[in-house]
Design a protein that fits this description.
By secondary structure, this protein is an alpha+beta fold. It has a single domain, classed as Aminopeptidase, CATH 3.40.630.30. The chain contains five helices and seven strands. It has helices at about 15-20, 25-30, 40-50, 100-115, 130-140, and strands at about 5-10, 55-60, 70-80, 85-90, 120-125, 140-145, 150-155. Strand 3 and strand 4 form a beta hairpin. Bound molecules: coenzyme A (COA).
């Protein structure tokens, strides 16, 4: 498979992230169940880029024509000192191609290398989101509990 590159998000990624966030499947699988306005997204994104406890990683690959393709985003949201919520959102154009697992795996590796502490990662996944449950489990997350009827919590202890 083509090598996947992981980098931190920059202000130039804002419009892509908004587009992926407002994609119907993303909304269907998210806890908020509605789209985000450009103004609200902008406020959130500017703040996220400056917030130490939030890491937004972008996964890219190089096409055969040497063009850089943005595959998706993996987000780490620090909720307590050593606890981060992780979520993934693939560019709708690159879903269903078997890239999600590699994206998540490489992002978790990148995150764990750059955060040398004993960290636990939590993922909250809709019970019906089979593709997401599959990739998180493949990367090593374990089912922890049901949050409610719709969402399940998975955990990965980075144990650094
Ligand atoms: C969830 C998401 C990242 C998965 O990416 P994807 O490219 O669509 O995933 P894939 O098609 O590669 O499928 C991943 C795995 O799930 C499996 N899978 C997909 N649909 C499945 C289903 N209905 N039942 C069982 N397994 C399924 C695939 O076979 C694949 O397994 P494999 O790697 O062993 O072949 C992507 O769909 C997405 O961004 N969705 C919107 C946002 C979202 O739901 N994020 C997750 C919130 S934490």
């Amino acid at each position: 498979m083509t090598k996947l590159n992981i980098r931190s998000a920059t202000k130039n990624d804002s419009s892509d992230l908004l587009e992926w966030r407002n994609d119907p499947l993303t909304i269907q699988m998210s806890q908020s169940t509605h789209g985000v306005s450009p103004a609200d997204h902008d406020l959130w994104f500017q703040k996220a880029l400056k917030t130490q406890s939030i890491k937004l990683l972008i996964c890219e690959i190089e096409s055969d024509l040497k063009k850089i393709l943005k595959i998706g985003m993996v987000r780490f949201d620090g909720t307590a000192d050593n606890l981060y919520k992780v979520s993934i959102n693939l560019n709708p154009l690159h879903r269903g191609k078997g890239l999600a697992k590699k994206c998540l795996e490489s992002s978790v590796n990148d995150f764990s290398i750059k955060n040398k502490r004993n960290i636990q990662l939590i993922a909250e996944i809709k019970a019906s989101n089979e593709a997401s449950k599959k990739i998180f489990c493949d990367v090593g997350f374990k089912y922890l509990k049901n949050i409610d009827n719709n969402f399940l919590q998975y955990m990965l202890d980075l144990n650094l």
